[in-house]
Amino acid sequence: MSAVRLAGGQEFKTSVFVNAAGPMLAEVGRMLGVDIPVFNELHLKAAFNDAHGVVGRDAPLLIYTDEQELDWSDEERAWLAEDAETHWLTGQLPSSAHVRPEGGTHAETIILLWDLHNEPVEAVFPPPLDPMYPEIAMRGLIKLLPKLCVYLERMPKPYVDGGYYTRTQENRPLACPLPVEGAFVIGAMSGYGIMSSPALGELVAAHIASARLPDYAPYFNLNRYQDPEYQKLLDSWSDSWQL
User: Distance between CA 151 and CA 138 in Å, rounded?
Assistant: First the structure.
């Protein structure tokens, strides 16, 4: 590694480069000639004012951990089943619909999250926002908080936002050197980046400084995918849990 050259021709001399490109991790890897086996999932969240106070302001993060089918009326179910784009809403949906209050004791905002879109996607910006997401997330929490059904007759105006979870097959991050001398990677922290990034940043810094590495360093190294025994483990793991 000797320099980074931008598309406009500007060049930065450096002997160290860290790929921390988030959803563009694999794309930046390809610029270095390195295959980084990660993919992106689109994750959305919806916020609205809980005028009826269904979720207490002192409530913790609440998670419905069961898979479920949504309770549609017969008319709604028939209408959804007719369209190939909405038919999936009539079947079994994943677990982990969750909600939490946002703001202080005098606020009314609640945030709803439900990871419905788990298929790998190409990262585009701004992320595409599903207009049905707020209502679907609301319905996914009614079994946990039945009083939320008060909002189904007239949905409050929501604010929908989202981004990408970048992850490896087994949902374990990368924090290690790359095959190109002087290049490193940190990423694929999926849905737990806030919790894991301090330790992973420290691990990458230790690699860069040639400092003593912790015993767990190999578990976050890209070269684990070259290990035949590790490949056997990957083949035997059926589920990859998400935070």
Answer: 8
Q: Is 191 helix (H, G, I), strand (E, B) or coil?
A: coil
Report d(CA 200, CA 206) in Å as an integer.
10
Which class does domain 3-38+169-236 fall in? alpha beta
Burial of 203 (0-12, 13-18, 19+ CB in 10 A): buried
Low-confidence ranges of the chain (pLDDT < 70): 238-243
Which of 175, 201, 149 lies closest to 38 in space, CA to CA?
Answer: 175
Measured in residues, the chain has a length of: 243
163: how many CB neighbours lie within 10 A of its CB? 17
Q: Class of the 40-167 domain?
A: alpha beta
What is the structure's pLDDT at 28?
Answer: 97
Given a contact cutoff of 8 angstroms between Cβ atoms, the answer to whether 132 and 88 are in contact is no
Cis bond before residue 126 (omega within 30° of 0): yes
Residue 111's H or E segment, with its range, is strand 109-113
Determine the pLDDT at residue 239: 60
Collapsed DSSP state (helix, strand, coil) of residue 160 = strand
Q: Domain boundaries in the chain?
A: 3-38+169-236, 40-167
Any idea what DSSP says for residue 181? T
The Cα 144–Cα 71 span in angstroms is 13
- Residue 107's pLDDT is what? 95
Contact in structure between 164 and 41 (CB atoms under 8 Å): yes
- The whole-chain average pLDDT of the chain stands at 93
Taking each continuous run of H as one helix and of E as one strand, the counts in the chain are 5, 10
What element of type H or E holds 136?
A: helix 133-140
How many other CB atoms are there within 10 angstroms of residue 19's CB atom? 23
